[in-house]
Amino acid sequence: MRYRIAFWNILLKDIRSYYLKPPNISWGIVFPLAWAGMFFVRSGTGIESVESLLPGLVSLSILFGTTSVLAVTVTFEKRGRSFERLLLAPIPLELLMLAKTSGAILFGVMNAFVPILLASLIIDLSISSWGLFLPVVLLIAMTSTFLGLFIAVSVSEVFEAQTFSNFVRFPMIFLCGLFFPIAALPSFLQPLSYALPLTYGVDVLHDVFGGASTLPLLLDFGVLGAYCAALFALSLRNVRRRWIL
Amino acid sequence: MLCPLARSTIAAMQVAAAEAHSRERAIEVENLVKRFGDITAVDGISLSVPAGEVFGLLGPNGAGKTTTINILTGLARPLAGEVRVGGIDCSRHLKAAQHLMGVVPDESNLYPELTGFQNLCFCGALYGMTRAARERRAHELLERFDLAGAAQRKFAGYSRGMKRRLTIAAGIMHQPPILFLDEPTTGIDVASARQVRQLIGEMNRAGTTVFLTTHYIEEAERLCRRVAFIVSGRIVREDTVKNLMRQVGGTHIVQFTVSKATPDMAGSLSAAFAATRFEMTSDTQFRAISTEPIRVGTLVVFMEQNGLAVSEAREIHPSLEDVFVQVTGLAAQEMKREKERTGGGGGP
User: Fold this and answer.
1) What's the mean pLDDT when you consider all of chain A?
2) Where are the alpha helices (DSSP H) in A89-216?
3) Choice between B3 and B320, residue whose per-residue pLDDT is larger
């Protein structure tokens, strides 16, 4: 009961204070749509190609919607010392960090539906395998959030968190099979693609939107799950080592 | 192997023992050591604070006050030593101990985007208070801290004094039996500082154990029953304020205000009046300190004859500051000025 109250109030405060604010909307919604538009125009294909853009668009919406906000909810609060209040509260660090990241995960999941809704306005879109779509969207949101968390707790300044996020996020656009297949990449870059978690999420999304996944789905989910656990554990370790001096 | 009943009985006895212990000693620290690289910030500190006491940790900037408070509250890990708060071993059960603590950091670190009322409610929620309980308590504290009129204003728009008062209110939202205050009046105006001191006194009278750090020695003298002087990470003296004051009980101090106080003048006075010590406190003031009654007239005549205009001679009653200077060899005024340069400040 005590922990539940603390958890919900941390989550609600973050949602009220940080989510749905202009910078978050621009990174999480406008930016991925602009990218998608660019690829759409560049491809020169008709409206029927929209569905093939959806795996990349959904992934980008989640990735940019989640990672950008952690720099504020965590690094900014640490810089302003209000994060100390949370560290002083009688709640386990694991629960505290889950509360701090749950908003980003929720925002990421909601972001995934923005391109879906927009696409459904212009094409006859039907998702046949919700059983695959929902879990993979959730896992991509969790992995991206914990990646953002890992960066946020590894730096001291908000601008550092944003800069390092971009170092990771922008290469993912090209390396993870979002808009063109990994097989089309130069062979020396392909191992890097398979080292990035988004590759596995996008692979499942290709399957969902009528394309072909190149890896076994079980492997995709397994790798995403492993990345989630590892990034969360490393983030906790960094908080303990760097912030509780 | 113990049966479950025996185990639960032993556990209950342990909790009861810890509670009884906490009634006697709210905070216990043994041989605390903390290093940052080559710098030893806390060097073997041991202290014990009985429940219901106001205890002050006094020292200059960089003496180790904030590091000590951070270790006691769980924001820093000691290299060695033991900390027990409310009888609970913080190295093993930090979160249980944190439930007994209220912490007011040296900076007002509430959430700028939330209103005063929302900030208090949020802090209450962190300690598991129900919505009804935290709203009731928030209203009560806003009234008590004279902030009811600003309850719906964002924290970012508060004045320094208001921010400080709300930060203290946030620290006691969950009615902790032990309150840690790090430099509670630094950076606020005189009226707000007085109000904060009154509130600390009220909380203590209501049964709260208060552990505070301050560089305002007069503040500690007014608020604390017991103090420890900390210098370079070590406690150089710890005693009740009453006992410490006895140390300077037989000392006579007269403060002179003159046209221009110079070290040469202090030197010539020392040569002429060997039984008296002379200390410059500013460009126009110095103090004559002696264990014998000071003959003010003789001193004034001497100074006037040496071309120094004396505008005032005032007897000063020895204070904790004098004990601090005696024990640590540090100039208390300089310490205060240094802190005010770096942190601003109202002070006592």
Assistant:
1) 87
2) 93-122, 130-152, 158-175, 190-195, 198-208
3) B320
